Predict the structure.
Amino acid sequence: QQFLLKPVVMLATTTSTYDSGLLDYLMPKFETKHDTRVRIISAGTGQAMEIAQRGDCDLVLVHCRDLELGFVNGGHGIRRIGIMYNDFVIIGPMSDPAGIRGSSNATEAFAKIARGGGRGDAIFISRADKSGTHMLELSIWKRLGMDPSNKSWASWYLAAGAGMGAVLRMANEKGAYALTDRGTWLSFKSQLANMAVLVQGDKILLNPYAIILVNPERHPHRNYNGAIALAKFMISEEGQGLIANFTKGGERPFMPIARNLELAEALGFPNQRDELSWYDARPQ
Amino acid sequence: MHFHVEVRNLCKDYPGKRALIDVSFGVERGEIFALIGPNGAGKTTLLRILDLLDEPSSGTVLFRGAEVDYSIKDRKDLRRGIGMVFQRTVLFNMSTFDNVAYGLKVRGMSEREIREGVKAALELVRLQGFEGRNALALSGGEAQRVALAQALAIEPELLLLDEPTANLDPRNASIIEEVLSRVNREGKTTIIMSTHNVFQAENLAHRIALLNEGKIERIGAFQDIFERPHRFLSEFARLENVFSGFSKATPEGTSIIDVGNGLHIEAAFERSGSVIVHIPPEDIILSTRPIVSSARNTLEGLVVQISDLGSIVKLKVRSNRDFTAQITKRSFNDMKIGLNSKVFLAFKASSVKMI
Amino acid sequence: MHFHVEVRNLCKDYPGKRALIDVSFGVERGEIFALIGPNGAGKTTLLRILDLLDEPSSGTVLFRGAEVDYSIKDRKDLRRGIGMVFQRTVLFNMSTFDNVAYGLKVRGMSEREIREGVKAALELVRLQGFEGRNALALSGGEAQRVALAQALAIEPELLLLDEPTANLDPRNASIIEEVLSRVNREGKTTIIMSTHNVFQAENLAHRIALLNEGKIERIGAFQDIFERPHRFLSEFARLENVFSGFSKATPEGTSIIDVGNGLHIEAAFERSGSVIVHIPPEDIILSTRPIVSSARNTLEGLVVQISDLGSIVKLKVRSNRDFTAQITKRSFNDMKIGLNSKVFLAFKASSVKMI
Amino acid sequence: MESPFIEEVLSITLLSLRVSGLAVLIGALAGVPIGTILGFKRFRGKRTLMRLMDVALRSFVNTLMGLPPVVVGLVVYLLLSSSGPLGPLRLLYTPTAMILTQLIMVTPIIIGVTMSAVGGVEESIREKALSLGASNWQATWMVLREARMGLLTAIIVAFGAAISEVGGIMMAGGNIRWFTRTLTTAIVTEVELGNFALAISLGIILLTMAFAINLLLTIMQLRGVRG
Amino acid sequence: MESPFIEEVLSITLLSLRVSGLAVLIGALAGVPIGTILGFKRFRGKRTLMRLMDVALRSFVNTLMGLPPVVVGLVVYLLLSSSGPLGPLRLLYTPTAMILTQLIMVTPIIIGVTMSAVGGVEESIREKALSLGASNWQATWMVLREARMGLLTAIIVAFGAAISEVGGIMMAGGNIRWFTRTLTTAIVTEVELGNFALAISLGIILLTMAFAINLLLTIMQLRGVRG
Ligand SMILES: Nc1ncnc2c1ncn2[C@@H]1O[C@H](COP(=O)(O)OP(=O)(O)OP(=O)(O)O)[C@@H](O)[C@H]1O
Ligand SMILES: Nc1ncnc2c1ncn2[C@@H]1O[C@H](COP(=O)(O)OP(=O)(O)OP(=O)(O)O)[C@@H](O)[C@H]1O
Ligand SMILES: [Mg+2]
Ligand SMILES: [Mg+2]
């Protein structure tokens, strides 16, 4: 009852981020420090952006560069700042019918899978839900000049329209390849007896997360200050340290980048320095 | 002064069936009015319209001189003065007490009034002690008496009864008849009832309406209706001398019907196969001496019952099978017939009617 | 040779009610056996057990000498020879034709047999032309006749009838009675029926069982049961001389009851308020001359009906209200009473019984 | 299991109960009367137009019984969203929004099943009550009393639909921990995390709770059976 | 909209119909008989133990009406997964798996509503049929005939539940495009993409289809009304 009186910050984020457990680990610390409540809506990436666009949250934590930029350019959001990254891996059956094991070139691996698929040896499962994961996957196909929505692929390219966990399970069942973030892979590894990480370490497989504030001019009723406070906490030395120390299944799924300007710029945040100093200049 | 209940030119059409055709009559306050007529005559239809459950197709109903507006949705206020006992007993799935109490409850009576009202009503129908029994676990006659108690408990000024004693044993039927006659006598309750029991109509009703195929054939006191021959008698009243059997055509164009018990009847029609026939009691000639005549059927028997119907007398004669003959009072007196007199019967082949 | 239907030490307990207590009897093949008794006597309960719808609490039922095993789940084979007409008419929500055809259909008869069977059955109950009517839109009597047609159509060897003519008009009732008597005569169909109509029992039944409070009181031919006085007569048969009215206690410890029509009756009990009383016909003294006696109630009237009941004669006398008196045949002969004779009635205050 | 975990499960269970319970309660208050009106066969046998309308109306209600929860949740979301018509009420992502969502889904079910239950009561019961002087309301009440068993089935089906529903309350309530998380949304979350054992445990808790409630309702229901 | 889009919507719609239709059909074949048996009041008035068992059984069925789809989907997944007992059947992520899932959800609903519909038919109908020489089966058939309206409500409620269900078929079917994607799973996908307008359009298609089917069922249902 008491907490109802506390100020509330609404954060919309993608399901996979929320499911990693990172936020349930971070937020209580922020809440005690600021005597605020954080309410987290986890939804599909597109849905989370739509929620923000309608002014139903104060800030978003997402990982999909194109959608993020569109959101900011449309005037819906401001102060996009890189927070952290994790990396994607390509997983597949132990038997590896497409022969991609050991490669560190994701694009090449995709090409081999497509060839295997054409022969009827390999299956690829896509989340097909315009999530960050799916967007990355699409960008890789695009580099190869291939279009997965081509119906002739339907025999081996399964557009599953499901969460990451569901896709991993499905890949395990079907002996298929899939692109996944490492965090979810770690959560599910023990249940996926037939699967292994086959390709990792490619730079294009790095997956950066951004925070964007909902534009207070568009939605004046939103808790703008609370949103800034939460963002400041995430990029603070303390917050970044907590992210770095977050472990899951003995591994550290997320790497902080907010204060690592070089890496941040390389991962698609050209204005990281300006945003950082803007946030740092805000009073606590 | 106007009638308590009046019906003018009432018609009721069901899909494919005209159940009431231009029915008009008036019932005085405090009168007992009996509707009699064969199955399907329209008695139930008429009573349901008077209870405001169905709407007439045309025509008007007047209560105390005021026309009933059937377009009103909630007819509760009009209906509060009316009690009805349905032909097919319907009771609620509750205790007998609650069933009888229902009409009082919806009238907002006090607990005490309800308790007393239910007690009195159950006493009238001789069902004291049945209060706690579930009404759906009663025997047919018990249930019908509960339905009567329901209607009596609300002390209506108009009581509509559709065959109220059909399921009652004779003893209870007598009691209920007497109760109805008292309710009418003392409470000036107007009663409109349908019955198949001519004796009940005779005992209870001040006037009787004969309904047939949706039309009123006659209205009047019992004596006026039943004591002179009328087509309706054979239409409605208990058919006497009904026999069924196997008929064989004879070469002469008549038929011999074996009606069992060694009795063969000759009929003027030509028919082979199973038939039901009827010999009107007024067609039977009665004599104290053997009859020699052109009548093809002659029998001998003993008088076992004599009923005086005013100007005519009915005799039940036991022969191979029982026959009822009907003669005038005058010839009855002339013949000096008494109980157990030996008599001879004769009837013509053409008096044997197939039904 | 064994009975067609035999019942031995049958008991049926409902929660809180013993409906049948140690009932035993046998019915010969081809017999018509009538159950009569007051409401709640157990007639319906007994018929339902014979139709294998309910299980007895104890005791056995034998068909053709073989004990019925009520533990068998599907009793269809046993039941195929039995037809039953329920007291409360139940019909299926289909056409009259389909209703009557149902029993034939479940027996796997051919289309043609069904058509003919239904036609014949509907003719028996005089409902030709009703084939297409929905059975739920029939009048009470029409519905009951459809139910009869259903039972007749299957041509059972045992016919169970629970008040089969309660809703019929007298004409149709006569027809149905004759039909039943023929079915019994020609098809050797055994019939067990319940009825409240003593005349029906007399006309139809070979033997009668008087059921009262779950026990069989007497079994025998009609004459044996009704022609000599028996406690049961007053328990069951139509009560005559029932009057209800308002009673006032007198200082002498008796009561004066105003029963309407200007008639006041003196009774030996002390009671104020509304009462129903009954004067047994056998307690009424009849005379052709004015009676001077200690009897507190004396009346004068005209004889309007005379019925011979063998050794006794029943007379209906019209005074302020109608009275029935019952005298022996001998005194009837001695007094030389005829229709319309003027007679005097007397009865003692102690003969006035409260019911 | 540690106590905070139990505390959370408890609060989640209570919220589930509160949301679905209230939705069904309000749905019954609205749906039973509507279902009763539709259940009475008053249009039957009357003019063809009336009958056509009757059939259309019933089909419409029957169709609404199959409203997809996500769609309902989405519509409620769009209504309550800050940019939606009811935005100023600030009800989005609250238990009230969830109740509203389930209410929309549950009411047609209650109407539909009530309709059929009331339609199954013999007309003579209503006529008998009217004949004894009952008002239309009182007579209707008597019909409902006789239809008790069917009405309780309506409640039970509706409660089953509500308590097991997830897509709608997810959209409208947001599945916010400690605030709008119910047993079903928690189950979905756990399934997504791959914690199948926990998901099934939560499912068992849900069913156990539902069983307790149904035991109560069933006892009430059987009391209503004739004979 | 281009024609491949229409083609896809069509195939999705047909799959929805096939899965839910078959689930309800099979569910009815199983559920109506079970519901009928439970609906007869044969245990009533008998020994206390029997009555207790009866109440427990009915409550159990009533509870199963509220099986959360995700849990059912999960259980089906665990059963059909290659490491599960039925793995060798290779049914996971096929329409068959979806039908199975909906079948599990829909059968208790059909049983429950049938139970109450059959319980509402007067015992005398069954007795009358038996008395006319019907076998137990034939008499039961007559009871079902009289309970038509309630039975069709059972089917309609079940169909509504099936056609709108998503969590279960998502788990068991995988929402694979061109293969196991139905209207509801497509709606969820579109919602997650933030394509709310498209989601609602798909919802309208679903409801239109459901309306057509319900119109048919409702006409059948009204034929069953007494009078
Ligand atoms: N709902 C209905 N639809 C069509 N016809 C009907 C309907 N109700 C009654 N009828 C018909 O109207 C006629 C009159 O019926 P009603 O019930 O008034 O007869 P009744 O005089 O009460 O007969 P009974 O002595 O058999 O009770 C009958 O022929 C009956 O079949
Ligand atoms: N299901 C039941 N539960 C409890 N008592 C019952 C049940 N059925 C009948 N009874 C009681 O058993 C007794 C016998 O009932 P039954 O129906 O056999 O009487 P009946 O002789 O047919 O009477 P009627 O002439 O009124 O039809 C009655 O007192 C009745 O109340
Ligand atoms: Mg009638
Ligand atoms: Mg009886």
About this structure: The mean pLDDT of chain C is 88. Residues B 139-140; C 43-44, 87, 162 surround magnesium ion (ligand 4) (CB under 6 Å). Chain C has three domains: 5-235, 241-278, 281-347. The CA atoms of residues 124 and 179 of chain C lie 7 Å apart.
